[in-house]
Specification:
The structure is a homotetramer.
Chain A (H helix, E strand, L loop, with lengths): L8 H15 L8 H17 L6 H4 L4 H25 L3 H15 L13
Helix pairs in contact in A: 1-4, 2-4
């Protein structure tokens, strides 16, 4: 199978969202500054579902809660992808770069080291 | 080519991150509540790069700024993927569901309608 | 006038909120971790009112928008005050400490220096 | 004591911050849109101190952690006050209005009702 001209799922999603915004002439609203703001707002809506839950409760979500969380997670991803288009960043490549950096920052140790705030 | 057993790039990333966390025994720290918090924190670090820029300046990032923004976007994606594993949500499927919902919420109109806060 | 036993407005507000929560037995939910999460969620709701506005539009809010913004700002303050009670921090004193630190970090210069991301 | 011309502590803080910004000619950067963004960024830095702590650990902060949290809380308050000046909102009055609304939204019941996400 010749994959040379096939877009990845992430690229396909980016194109879908670009078309969605173009059809509605939302370009002027989609400055990177605004998209980053919208992303934070959605991240807050995602966190809201967990704010009064204990950590244990958060590991056992009801089906309704899981569905609501899925919607907010999708909202975050959609703005992240639109921002990646707006600033010209390859999200999946950036993810791989960050994993390499994280492996250096958090080497596997014995005994293990907890995650730390930066 | 038989694609039946091939994981998508997103699934591959999820497995990579699961292994990364397992090697460091970070499971106890990775409650969905904590992962959602970490995601919001990274989204704030992303927004920080834009807070004093005008919208116009945000459309013309310097190479250094673009690199810094790429790192923060990767951080957001990594927590989003780890959260999707923790709660059992298929991110790309949830994204498609949300696009369908958004198309109903924001139909293409003449004249066009600006994006509205929810 | 003997002010020795008079509480400041901020202390009065903190007592009001403590009583409000006690009457509803919300103590178990009000861990500092949860209160900090709730504060971020409200800050996101505040930002949502500005996400599609230009900076110029944000300087000329309609009365309805200004009222909505006032409510969200109050929500942020209420969680900030409840968090200050929960962790034992004097908010107004901490504000003065921070102003002193900021004056050292951003001395008045000629020509002036723009605010920078930390 | 004639209190007619005495400013409240909050008004005094607002004036202090206005002067601080004027001395540095930061006015052009302090659109309400930007101040709301900066507030969210600081709220995220505050949450970062709690993201890997359990709720129980968050109730027993070390002196260093408490100091760091105090600084971030002050950062949030400073932007909240600057935003209140920029949009013309009386923060303490808005707080009282919100308490009245909250009392209607969450009446004292028997048995008591937990706080709910909006």
């Amino acid at each position: 199978m010749n994959t040379a001209n096939m877009s990845t799922p992430m690229q396909g999603l980016a194109q879908q969202l670009q078309q969605f915004a173009d059809e509605r002439q939302w370009g002027p609203y989609h400055s990177p500054k605004n998209l980053a703001s919208a992303l934070v707002v959605e991240a807050g809506e995602l966190l809201e579902h967990f704010q009064w839950l204990t950590e244990a409760q958060s590991r056992e979500l009801t089906p309704e809660k899981k569905q609501a969380v899925a919607h907010e997670m999708a909202d975050v991803l959609l703005y992240l992808v639109q921002l990646s288009t707006a600033v010209g960043v390859d999200l999946m490549a950036a993810a791989q770069d960050k994993i390499v950096l994280n492996a250096q920052k958090y080497p596997v140790t014995c005994p293990v080291t907890p995650p730390a705030s930066r």
